Give the backbone structure.
Amino acid sequence: MKTQVILFLFSVLTLNVYATEVHSIAFANAKAIIIKSNDWKSKSVDVQIKEASGNIILSETLKIKNSDRKYNFKNLPDGEYSIQITDDLKIATQHFSIRKEEVKMSQSVETIHKPFITKKDNHLDINLMTGGNTAFINITDINNNIVYADKYETATIHKRFNITSLVPGSYSMTVSIKDRTFTHEFKN
C-alpha cells in the first residue's frame, strides 16, 4: 500500500483562478486545486479524495460560506486520483492525475443525482433524474421481505406510491443507480 500522505489544507478567501470543466473546481497553481463552495446549493458538502485503488486519503465536510477550500497536492506521489463532492442533491466525481509538477483534471465529470423521496399521508413520492442510467426501486418491510420491486430505464422518474395497502410498520425504499444505493426509511 502507498505510504501515508499528508495533505496541506488551506482556506482561502479570494484567489485569482482559472476554472476547469467543473465550475466548482478550479486550479490555484500546478499542484493545487480549489473547491469553490458557493457553487453548491446545500449548507455543506462532503469532499473525498481517493487513490485509483479506492483508498480514501482525505474525507471532510465543508460548510458552505463565502470562502473556498484549497487542496495542495505537492506531497502526493505521481498517480491517478479522484475527487468526489457530495451534497443533499447529487454526487459529482472527477478523476485527475498527478504527473511531476502538475495536476491534470479529466474533462469528464460523473454526476449522480440523489433520489428525492417524501412521505405525506398515505403516499410515498420519488423524484429522480437518472441521466439515462437504469434505476432499481425496491420497498422492503422490517423483515427484508420485498413488497415492491421495479426497474426503470427512463431519464427521469416521478412516481407516487399509494401505501394504504401496506401492513402498519417500518419499511425501506431502496433506490439503486449505477454503483450507488440510496435508502429511505419510512413508517406506515
